Amino acid sequence: MTRFSKLNIWRYPSRWILFRLDDRLLLIIIGAIVGICSGLAAVAMCQGLLAMFAWMHHYRGIWWAFLLPGCGAAVAAVFLEKILKEGAGHGVPEVVYSVVRYGGLMRLRSSFSRLISGCLTIGSGGSAGPEAPVVMSGASIGSNIAQFFSLNDRQRVAIVGCGSAGALAAIFNAPITGLVFTIEVIVGEWSAVNVVPIAIASVAGAEVCRLLIGNQFLFSSLAFNVDLLDILACLGLAVFTAAASVLLTRGLRHSNRISFKLYNKMPMPFWVRPFIGGCLVGLIGLALPEILGEGYHVIRVMVKGAFTQGLLFVTVLMLAKILATALTLGWGGSGGIFAPCLAIGSFSGLVFHRFIDLLGPGVGWVDEGCFALLGMAGLTSGMLQAPLTGIFLIVEVTGGYGVILPLILVSAISATVTHAFEPASFYLKELVEKGHYLRPRTDERVLADLTVRELVEKDCIVVYKNMKLGDFANIVKKSHRNFFPVEDENTGNFVGMIHLDDIREYLFNPILYETVFLEQILDTNVATVDLDDDLTDVLERMDEKNLFTMPVVVNNRFVGTISKATLLDKYRSELMVQSYY
Amino acid sequence: MDLQLLHIFRNTPLGRELMLQSAYFCRILKILPVIYVPQYMKFLMYFENDVVQVDLDGSYLRSPSTARDHAAEIIRQQGLAEPKFLEPKNFTASTLPDLPINFDFMCCPRTISDLSSKIGLGYIGPRVRRIIHSARFPVLIGCSVYKPWQSITVFFGGSANAVKALRLGFRLARLTGFPLDVFTQEGRRDRKYYEDVIEKENLGPEMDRYARQWRVYDSGEFIDNLYDVPHDALVIAGAYGHGVIKEVLFGSTLEKIQTQLPNTLLIVGPNYRAAM
User: Fold this and answer.
1) Half-sphere exposure of A493 (CA within 13 A, CB side)
2) CATH fold of A447-579
3) A65-112 pLDDT, tens per residue?
4) Is residue A385 over pLDDT 80?
5) Of A11, A288, B158, B174, which sees the most CB atoms within 10 A?
């Protein structure tokens, strides 16, 4: 082995024999590494938030404390925009975008940017959750490790999923939730090749959290005795949480639109928008401090059934938390939607419980803590449109399967009802609207992965507009095609096409050979394709005009042709590539 | 004309010089210039195994109202057809467009993210380096002032990337009809080694056909020998040699070339795939 080849083994770690034994083994080993790293990121986020809460606690009673969430969100925006130069967002949609569009390629800076900006926003009192930032961080860690090992697109997507699962498993101490969320929301497909490494990463992430922070349930609850009447009441709760999900989804979008309108109308520095949103949250927080931060403390109280305030106050709290979340995230704050979903969900559960208790005071409903749990599951399932995530999350964060039946019921119905009003989840809505939500092996994805450039056929014989029909007839004899692009011999510009079907009557009339020029018989009204056109659009145009072949023309120059036959060949090849593991 | 060159247009006098070089390159090689006039301070390029975020120097967004006209004017002056302006279709974030990467060439200044005052011999910015490292296309790095090149010089050091650079040089020589010079510094190996590489790569016939001269230096410092490179030559070189350290830097040869030569450079990265 030469000195250079010895060094080369470090350049291409993915070629190490250990990893080349089996692709699945490679994914499992890398998945475990990624799970540990993303678990560490989640622990760092937790500890950072605790430190921020402890530091901010001293200032909460001061009259100007309402400025704190604004300052936190503004500093987070400056950090993201000016220091790291990364566009702000909720995190999860960007992870999904990178998975569906670019095989999970993510920037290295994303592995820590949202951790810091999330800490600043949430720690200062912004109504957002730490889960999306850690999911983004874990996914980015996974993506960059996959890039280091030069993994292919599908392997990289699995490793990005490992990062996301490890992070979520660690922050909730919930490995199954990490796995299920990743499969339902991030990766979007259940396959053995994905599930195994993601499960391993999930376990690794949760174990890291247990080792460093301790093995404890996020919300320990009482044992609930759920009877038939409670289960029937759950149907109403499911619809109620679905309504809250729709309200939150639309509130976030409207808030975002309003903030951008204001930003566009009034010239102001970019950080003023999150500052205003944060200050408004701070003002609400002066009257209702329960809505500040990620809201875990108040959830714990509700789950234990120790929340003493009445129906009206809880309803106000629920609406205020929705408003605060919309103001924080819609106005450019950094953080995720998961924790607010849990808080709003538990408020919804409590509101509903108190409402039915008002209707039937002597019925003996199950403890309101149970409804708080079910509300969390319903709202999470509705917002994410991922019912399994909602079910397993509540089971794992409370440590019991006692309410599994109503959990399934509420989650499934809430997700279904929400879907009727909001066909795409909060995370995916924008991607779906822009046509970027392309899952593997779907028609859109296969077409998106092919380009006109790959399909161009260049074996056409180009003819010129001043050519005589007789000369053209000689060319036809040598060609196996029945269409010919026509160019201007002086400028080289494309001027039209000749289809043999259109000129057959001239072609078999030798009298015309010396008198007719191609300019007289060519079709100038030809639909053309550019190299940058999307294949979906090209196919639509072909179907509209009943064409099987179209010329590709760039800047008036003929480049080649594109045909449905070639497209079908390439389509099948691409589909096989996407289906192969 | 189906080959395309991506040019990120900077609407400043310095940007004009670079645009002139792109336009000349496109005219000589019959390539379609695709011009991106930035509307945002940053953009992303998703390559096969890397995603590169380019944070532009603020001067790229100067005078947006005249940018397109200025770019089009330069293209027309070179006798090319109307330029094609790139409009990003995909956005990772609302102010972060994704630029496509399916081009055959890209033209960059020596630095794209730092202030233009840093542009000078010996400095190639980190973003440009990453693009070269990840791209399938060679990157044209223009000099400060437009100067039409009249010959081609390829630096051949025997590595895989040097072979790619040599192939590209032959293709450009074939398309342009310009004379091609090949430069080799012997170093620890003798001329026979380089001849064997050319023989092994089956490049002998093209070497005989296109190369005006093959200068193999067995003495003298490499830097001193660079004086023999014609002042009006397009210099083609591979970006990386062998080893770990040279994966991070360009490779010692190219670092010396870019430090000493003011010529227009066409750099072939490790992921380059021949397009012509």
Assistant:
1) 9
2) CBS-domain (3.10.580)
3) 889 999 999 999 999 888 888 876 668 889 999 998 898 999 999 999
4) yes
5) B158
Specify whether the CB–CB gap between B108 and B265 falls below 8 A.
Answer: no
Mutating which of A102, A111, A444 best tests the B interface, going by the most B Cβ atoms within 10 A? A102
Kindly list the structural domains of chain B, giving each domain's residue range(s) and its CATH number in brackets, ordered by start. 4-113 (3.40.50), 151-268 (3.40.50.620)
B102 CB within 8 Å of a chain A CB: yes
- B46: part of which helix (H) or strand (E)? strand B42-46
Give the model confidence (pLDDT) of B145-179 as tens digits: 898 999 999 999 888 888 999 999 999 999 999 99
Cα angle: B181, vertex B185, B191; to 5 degrees: 90
Q: Can you name the CATH fold of A14-212? A: Clc chloride channel (1.10.3080)
The torsion region of residue A197 among left (phi > 0), alpha (psi -120 to 50) and beta comes to alpha
Whether B92 and A109 lie within 8 Å, measured CB to CB: no
**What pLDDT is attached to residue A3?**
44
Q: Are residues B119 and B111 in contact, defined by beta-carbon separation less than 8 angstroms?
A: yes
Please indicate whether the domains covering A228-433 and A447-579 agree at the CATH topology level. no
| Fold of the A228-433 domain | Clc chloride channel (1.10.3080)
pLDDT at B257: 86
B219 token code pair: 């003495």
Beta-bridge partners for A550:
A562
- Bridge-based pairing of strands B84-85 and B51-55 is unpaired
Task: Tell me which residue of B169, B238, B237 sits closest to B209, measured CA to CA.
Answer: B169
Do A205 and A175 touch, CB atoms closer than 8 A? Answer: yes
- Chain center to CA of A419: 17
The whole-angstrom separation of Cα A86 and Cα A164 is 19
Domain parsing of chain A, residue ranges: 14-212, 228-433, 447-579
Q: Does B94 touch chain A (CB under 8 A)?
A: yes
